[in-house]
């Protein structure tokens, strides 16, 4: 099948790749751009491990085609930290032991960051429903929710 | 670093530092199974049986091989003949011989220059099947006249109950188990109340978020490498070598970071296919990553169970006798955890009279793998449900009944051995004291308690610790870090040396770097690798004391190790300033060479862990939906080396158990095909299903470990199944005996009760 030339912006950098029209954005990030931070846990949009934002909208990159990224702005887990400076969510995930195996962590961080950009002071229930599309099989979610609450509080204080 | 609120005589053990691999795991840098690539790498896809049971008449790969970029196809013909026992089982499960035994059973595999091309090629491999009769339900597979899953494999030889089981009828019983002690009938006669019940649990999957993935490379000489997500790289090496008929030493296996395992990544599934394809493709590396539906159809899961339990109880709650008859299917292969389920079933109770009978049964389902305390949650569902029902009938507090019968040090266990120091009584007392138990309940709300047990495991262990040139320590362990292991090992090693937590680097190493290691299974990694690391560090300390003694010209016995430095032991040894680990390390090349310690052993001293859970639920009487309002886990850790990760094990185990109790099950159609092979339909708990999970860490130190560690990973999944059932019974008065307790089932039970 003829491949399509795609130019897009990932974490602020312009990149290009050749995509088979059947390949997902996740495939393209991982296999063509060597950005393996986003993970494939299901390939059907049920687990959220591949969460990225496209023009600010939180999506499962396994449900977006690579060719759809043309001209868009994609943000992934690799772009959350500011150089050596971790994002408060990243620090709080480590401090609260909000990851055990860590495979779901990139997706949770992308989704939680997107939540806090829209709602800097979410309730526990709002956090739980926003993150309901991100599966974690290790933690029982308790420490993840606490890490997001703590990061939100810190970010509000810093603002 | 803040001292933890738990009382501790240690400087570091018991604190909560950041995990050393945290930075890599929050930035996306950590490399998991599917994140590894090699130059010249091919991609593989697997052809799987769409039938539950079928004769494979013909496999034609000519169309696939004709595609540009397709480099190799393998079938069973590419694997050696003549394997026996579990080696044969592993090979047969890796790729079917002449019969597909379950929906999803691998039949052929193909390697091509891209993942898409491999998938396209797999669709072009034509397989001709002759469909055979199948059976998937455990009771149907046990029944006389059931279709034989593997004709001729029935084995009733170890049982004294052949009269019950004419072996020409029950084709699928491949193992029978009987053990116990006392006189069960006499015990029932002594009881004031005797009750029995039949309970059923459905198969569930471990549900790790990371699908199985590997890159395998093997040449015509039978030597190769593998990079794989696994709980145990040595098991991958051993099992792949057996299935491929090569020397184990010919294969070097590196474990990637692992995205969850829960027992399901302690064995092989598709790894030999990658190696066989590589060999056939001239030694090019082959990457094989499962899809989620492949994970659900062909890996894991746990067994499904059908269980009869009978218990005798006196009016004061004293147990007089118990009998369990468990039937479990573990797929088309022997090995359901019916033995472990039975040994755990009554392990929390002093029982003078107890009888266990078990049947391991074949069915047309995937080969079951270990899942967190294999077997124990099913047995607990049956036993703890019945004990709860009897306590309620006698008007007794269910926690008091458990305390009255709780085992303690010196008691003979239900499964034979005598307990050493265990913490069940302490756990039950801490549970009774918790504020959650005094929260008032509203209409349609109920509270359930249950207790659980897991033996924990020592296992074959090899660890090496070396003193680094800069005075820090480098630790090589062979147990992959699934949930904070590097942090726990670093804490124990730093404590032993008397150096900082950040001065210890822990590496999970490949099979060439250490002797054999069992996987991170059996709740053993912190216990066994930790104990071996402490022993290794102590060996380093001894050598460092010798270096100091040599320098000072005194006997090594006159040198002691205090706070990270050698010093003269008392005034008679001489007056010398302490010599730090850093000073010794910097000059070690000139004072005798590198310093390292190592420990290789089958680890002894394992300590069992008991836990008690209390759950409050609300049941919606109109829909049958159960909401978890409050959840408490109380468990004996022995010693919590890093309390945050101990709490995490408690919380994660509880939530997996909640999923098993309320939602999760393998649903098979009449055609024997799995109906729910994606996460949309195989629904695991999500964040909005749950409250916070409260935890209490009880610490009754294990005398068999230098820091008292017991192992905490598995016990936590055992109590939730019955605890939730008991809470539902308390809330709406219906006794659910068949998991999962999903809304339709609970609603039907409520309606049946209302209709009398």
TrEMBL record, chain A:
Record's InterPro entries? 2Fe-2S-bd, 2Fe-2S-bd_dom_sf, 2Fe-2S_ferredoxin-like_sf, 2Fe-2S_ferredoxin-type, 2Fe2S_fd_BS, Beta-grasp_dom_sf, Diverse_Oxidoreductases
Keyword Secreted on entry: no
The answer to whether the entry has keyword Cell membrane is no
Give the range the annotation lists for the signal sequence.
none
Going by the UniProt record, its keywords in alphabetical order are:
2Fe-2S, Iron, Iron-sulfur, Metal-binding, Oxidoreductase
Q: Which domain of life is it from?
A: Bacteria
List the PROSITE patterns.
Answer: 2FE2S_FER_1, 2FE2S_FER_2
Q: Show where the 2Fe-2S ferredoxin-type domain sits.
A: 4-80
Q: Which PANTHER family match?
A: OXIDOREDUCTASE WITH IRON-SULFUR SUBUNIT
Query: How is this protein named in the record?
Result: Ferredoxin
From the broadest rank down, the organism's phylogenetic lineage runs: Bacteria, Pseudomonadati, Pseudomonadota, Alphaproteobacteria, Rhodobacterales
UniProtKB/TrEMBL annotation, chain B:
The Aldehyde oxidase/xanthine dehydrogenase a/b hammerhead domain extends over 27-133
User: In which domain of life is the source organism classified?
Assistant: Bacteria
**Keywords, alphabetical:** Molybdenum, Oxidoreductase
- Pfam families in UniProt: Ald_Xan_dh_C, MoCoBD_1, MoCoBD_2
The UniProt record lists the keyword Nucleotide-binding: no
Question: Keyword Oxidoreductase: yes or no?
Answer: yes
Spell out the InterPro entries in the cross-references. Ald_Oxase/Xan_DH_a/b (IPR000674), Ald_Oxase/Xan_DH_a/b_sf (IPR036856), Ald_Oxase/xanthine_DH-like (IPR016208), AldOxase/xan_DH_MoCoBD1 (IPR008274), AldOxase/xan_DH_MoCoBD2 (IPR046867), AldOxase/xan_DH_Mopterin-bd_sf (IPR037165)
PANTHER family per record: ALDEHYDE OXIDASE 1-RELATED, XANTHINE DEHYDROGENASE
**Protein name, entry field:** Oxidoreductase
What organism does the record attribute this protein to? Sinisalibacter aestuarii
């Amino acid at each position: 099948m003829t491949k399509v030339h795609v130019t897009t912006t990932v974490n602020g950098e312009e990149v290009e790749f050749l995509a088979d029209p059947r390949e997902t954005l996740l495939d393209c990030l991982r296999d063509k751009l060597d950005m393996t931070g986003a993970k494939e846990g299901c390939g059907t949009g049920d687990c959220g491990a591949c969460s990225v934002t496209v023009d600010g909208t939180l999506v499962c990159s396994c449900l977006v085609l690579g060719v759809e990224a043309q001209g868009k702005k994609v943000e992934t887990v690799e772009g959350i930290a500011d150089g050596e400076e971790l994002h408060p969510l990243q620090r709080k995930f480590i401090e609260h032991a909000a990851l055990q195996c860590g495979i779901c962590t990139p997706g949770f961080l992308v989704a939680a960051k997107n939540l806090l950009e829209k709602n800097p002071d979410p309730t526990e229930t709002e956090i739980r429903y926003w993150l309901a599309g991100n599966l974690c099989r290790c933690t029982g979610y308790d420490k993840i929710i606490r890490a997001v609450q703590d990061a939100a509080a810190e970010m509000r204080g810093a603002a | 670093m803040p001292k933890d609120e738990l009382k501790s005589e240690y400087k570091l053990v018991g604190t909560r530092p950041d995990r050393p691999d945290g930075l890599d795991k929050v930035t996306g840098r950590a490399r998991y199974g599917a994140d590894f690539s090699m130059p010249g790498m091919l991609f593989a896809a697997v052809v799987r049986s769409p039938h539950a049971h079928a004769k494979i008449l013909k496999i034609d790969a000519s169309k696939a091989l004709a595609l540009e970029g397709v480099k190799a196809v393998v079938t069973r013909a590419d694997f050696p003949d003549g394997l026996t026992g579990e080696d044969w089982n592993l090979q047969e499960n890796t790729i079917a011989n002449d019969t597909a035994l379950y929906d999803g059973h691998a039949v052929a595999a193909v390697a091509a220059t891209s993942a898409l091309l491999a998938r396209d090629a797999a669709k072009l491999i034509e397989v001709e099947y002759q469909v055979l009769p199948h059976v998937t339900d455990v009771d149907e597979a046990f029944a006389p006249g059931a279709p034989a899953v593997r004709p001729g494999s029935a084995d009733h030889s170890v049982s004294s109950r052949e009269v019950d089981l004419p072996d020409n009828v029950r084709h699928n019983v491949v193992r029978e188990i009987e053990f116990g002690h006392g006189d069960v009938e006499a015990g029932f006669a002594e009881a004031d109340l005797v009750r029995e019940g039949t309970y059923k649990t459905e198969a569930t999957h471990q549900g790790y978020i990371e699908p199985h993935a590997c890159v395998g490379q093997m040449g015509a000489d039978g030597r190769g490498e593998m990079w794989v997500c696994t709980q145990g790289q040595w098991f991958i090496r051993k099992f792949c070598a057996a299935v491929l008929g090569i020397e184990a030493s010919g294969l070097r296996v590196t474990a990637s970071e692992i995205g969850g395992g829960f027992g399901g990544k302690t064995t092989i599934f598709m790894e030999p296919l990658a190696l066989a394809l590589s060999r056939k493709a001239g030694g090019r590396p082959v990457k094989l990553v499962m899809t989620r539906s492949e994970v659900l159809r062909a890996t894991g899961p746990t067994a499904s169970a059908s269980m009869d339990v009978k218990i005798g109880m006196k009016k004061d709650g004293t147990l007089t006798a118990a009998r369990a008859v468990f039937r479990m299917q573990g797929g088309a292969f022997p090995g359901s955890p019916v033995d472990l389920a039975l040994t755990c079933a009554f392990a929390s109770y002093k029982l003078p009279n107890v009888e266990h009978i078990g049947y391991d049964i074949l069915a047309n389902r995937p080969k079951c793998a270990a899942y967190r305390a294999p077997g124990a949650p099913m047995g607990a569902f049956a036993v703890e449900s019945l004990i709860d029902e009897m306590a309620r009938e006698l008007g007794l507090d269910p926690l008091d009944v458990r305390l009255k019968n709780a085992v303690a040090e010196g008691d003979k266990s239900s499964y034979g051995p005598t307990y050493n120091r265990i913490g069940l009584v302490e756990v039950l007392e801490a549970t009774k004291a918790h504020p959650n138990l005094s929260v008032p309940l509203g209409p349609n709300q109920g509270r359930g308690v249950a207790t659980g047990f897991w033996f924990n495991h020592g296992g074959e262990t090899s660890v090496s610790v070396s003193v680094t040139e800069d005075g820090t320590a480098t630790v090589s362990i062979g147990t992959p870090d699934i949930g904070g292991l590097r942090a726990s090992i670093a804490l124990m090693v730093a404590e032993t040396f008397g150096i900082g937590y950040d001065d210890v680097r822990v590496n999970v190493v490949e099979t060439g770097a250490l002797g054999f290691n069992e996987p991170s299974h059996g709740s053993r990694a912190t216990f066994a690798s930790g104990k071996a690391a402490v022993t290794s560090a102590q060996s380093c300390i001894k050598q460092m004391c010798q270096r100091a003694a040599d320098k000072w010209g005194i006997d090594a016995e006159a040198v002691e190790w205090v706070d990270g430095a050698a010093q003269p032991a008392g005034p008679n040894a001489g007056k010398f300033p302490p010599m730090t680990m850093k000073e010794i390390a910097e000059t070690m090349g000139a004072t005798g060479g590198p310093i390292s310690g190592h420990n290789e052993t089958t680890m002894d001293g394992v300590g069992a862990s008991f836990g008690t859970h209390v759950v409050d639920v609300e049941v919606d009487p109109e829909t049958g939906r159960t909401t978890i309002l409050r959840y408490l886990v109380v468990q004996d850790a022995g010693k919590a080396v890093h309390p945050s990760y101990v709490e995490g094990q408690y919380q994660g185990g509880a939530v997996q158990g909640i999923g098993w109790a309320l939602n999760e099950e393998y649903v098979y159609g009449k055609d024997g095909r799995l109906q729910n092979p994606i996460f949309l339909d195989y629904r695991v708990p999500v964040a909005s299903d749950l409250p916070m999970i409260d935890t209490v860490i009880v610490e009754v130190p294990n005398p068999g470990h230098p820091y008292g560690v017991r192992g905490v990973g598995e016990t936590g999944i055992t109590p939730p199944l019955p605890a939730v059932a008991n809470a539902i019974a308390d809330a709406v008065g219906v006794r659910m005996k068949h998991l999962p307790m999903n809304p339709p089932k609970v609603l039907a039970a409520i309606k049946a009760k209302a209709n009398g």
